[in-house]
Design a protein that fits this description.
- The chain crosses the membrane at residues 7-30, 68-85, 97-117, 129-150, 162-186, 192-212, 232-253, 273-292, 304-322, 342-362.
- InterPro entries: Seleno_YedE, Sulf_transp_TsuA/YedE.
- Keywords: Membrane, Transmembrane, Transmembrane helix.
- The chain has 368 residues and is mostly helical.
- It has one domain.
- It has helices spanning 2-10, 12-31, 42-52, 67-81, 93-110, 114-122, 127-147, 160-179, 198-215, 219-229, 233-251, 269-286, 290-298, 302-320, 342-361, and strands at 88-89, 156-157, 329-331, 334-336.
- The protein starts with a helix and ends in a 7-residue tail after the last helix.
- It has a two-stranded antiparallel sheet with strand order 1-2. A two-stranded antiparallel sheet has the order 3-4.
Amino acid sequence: MKNTLNAFFASRGGIVAVGAVIGALAAWLVSMGNPPNMGICVACFERDIAGALGLHRADVVQYLRPEIPAFVLGSLAAALVFGEFRARAGSTPLLRFFLGMFAAIGALVFLGCPWRSILRLAGGDGNAIVGIAGLATGISVGALFLKNGFTLGRARPALKPAGWLMPALMLGLLALAVAQPAFIFASSKGPGSMHAPLLISLGAGLLVGFLAQRSRFCTMGSIRDAVLLRDFHLISGVIAMAVAAFAVNWLLGQFKPGFAMQPIAHSNHLWNFLGMVLAGLSFALAGGCPGRQLILTGEGDTDAGVFVLGMLVGAAVAHNFALAAAADKLTDAVLQVGGPGFNGQVAVLVGLVFCLILGFSMREKFDA
């Protein structure tokens, strides 16, 4: 039975089925209460969790989203069932942490992670085209660094408690999401106040985590493989995700095409592009998109755990220091185009310089 399932998930049909399920679930979660075009967004949800824990005080984006711990626990369940849980650790944890921080900052300048860029497009948001172009550009640059010997070090076996630490942390977050103690912040307005019922979010997250672990679903990996290897296996799953999300949005009346005044988005094309260039480059150098990093933590990968913590802190920094973009808004019936302020623009440029220095300097052939 396990061999049959392994063969299915490794096949083209398997990755397409997984992508379709993730896309359909994400669009359905919007109808259940999650923010528009944000049925699933790892960067946005980690930002909300950071707010719920008091790491930032932007009162419109504070909610302890159960989907994030559910992704990890679903992956953990799959890894245990199929004998793939392996505690492992690599090197350069501080660099991975900063890559996570800059990935979150870039994503919050665009206002979405790679998964949300696809879901925004499937909901009709034309700005997602610019963001996806930036994402592909950043990943392509990262792929060139990889081709020329870039590395953060190879993972090695570690003692089991190290691999269990992040799943245990996520289990604790899930317990807090259920208990909702007084010290957990929760938005009464804005995106943080929009959420599906807890059990629905939990069930969807566990299923996505399980399926993504079995199929190795990864948006960053799909573009990297296409650029480096001309391998389009993973990208077929990403396309299926977009098609399924579009179909469900259309059926539920959630497809609203346009550029201006899209939900929780801005139409400043330059910074939509550059924000996702930074995010894509950070993902490529770190070895996975934010969704894939969560899945890897469920398999015992402590390097991915460091990146996830970096994203959590980066999301908090983005709101504490006014780096995140503002959405488009209407003022006296006049469109005010959103986007990042000066602080956010500087942060993106600093992040790009950091990643480029890393890409040129962390190459094995320089050590020969």
